[in-house]
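Input chain follows. Return structure tokens only.
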Amino acid sequence: MNQRLATGAATKPGRRQRHFGARRPVGAFEFLQRARDSATGIYTPESFTIDYGIRRLGLQRFVLLNHPDYIKHVLVTNHANYEKGRLTQKMLGPVLGQGLLTSEGALWRRQRRIAAPAFQHRRLTALTETMVDCAARMADRWQEPAAAGKAFDVANEMSVLTMEIVARTLFGSDITDRVGDLRGAIVDILRGFGQPNPMDLMGLPDWLPRRQDPDARRAMRRTNRLVSEILDNRRKAAADRPDLLGMLLAARDPETGEGMSDRQLRDEILTLFAAGHETTATGLTWTWYLLSEHPEVRAKLEAELDATLGGRTPAYADLEHMPYGRMVFEEALRLYPPAFSLSRVALAPDRVGPVRIRTGDLISISPYVTHRNPKLWPDPERFDPDRFLPEQTAARPKFAYFPFGGGPRICIGNNFAMIEARLALAVLAQRYRLSLAEGHPVVPYGRVTLRPRYGLKMRAEKRPAG
């Protein structure tokens, strides 16, 4: 069975959230154009229903997997045979180096062990006060535009919020004055590097020259200077702090006793800043959009917040009494998973279901596609948080839903992100209702993450006391 990679047609937002992409199978040249612009554009309606698809582009063979058992095989059962590979390195390596998101093998295992204690449940619960404080300060800043009826970009606001949370919880309050500069530099870098080069998609050799974005190069130099300043300031302070930056500085190789080089520290700091804030910000952005389009869901969320909190500030202990908020965010991640596509490269031949995998095949696994598979999700375009009632979740295959990936390389910050998002949603939704600015286009844009192409202009209306 030789299927072409396929997605759905672009439509206006409505009660059901339409998938965006090609209306028909696309040729090689159009495929390259679409992949470079927005990766969701390569999918056609067939992509969402097939179990797998195979396509050759130049020297590269692509295999799309869209069946939970096949996805589990690659991410869990035989994960050792699949690594992130050259396409990921080409896109993110210049930005993140050999950080947790891009490294492989022994280096990845070592760095993961070092970072893991910062994300233990005990530590996360201690960070929730900071998360709530950051969200409350943003709610205060929204008073002025809300009173004036002025629209603002919620995508940008969520990015600012989550970057501040990452800075304060993982790296200490002493670097918060550099967060704006660092965030701007990372955005510029990802704009330049965060798209596949057509030559890499076709599997052409590395010795052929690729065009490099001069603006992205300048932003990368700026970022390196900022990270060096962060490290120098912490070393000069000689402070032994129990945050992630302190753990990274204190880490020693058990065999050699050596600490991380400045290059390794730079890679991990940038990875945790970039990945640690971007995915949560994007998930929250889509949540606000979906709530504005579905007032009946918003009303149910507000009723839960009012009954549980009664207007007070939420705490970690409140989360277990607010299951609907969790369900709302999980359903938003289903329709618009920030990490919308994962890729792996086969190191050796394998068989996945009926598919013979060859060495060097690029395996494409897309939460965006699988989360909208009608075989797994009845009426998949409909926004329905009740899909995540416990009995519904238990009845689904595990890899029908995987917004944070899966297997050994599941996102190390997935629990951090869920707690952060639910608390931020509780703080802000208690005080405001957001509505989409009239005429503002909403188009998913698949580059490094699945963001709204034109941002998300919304107006905030202050809620009456519950």
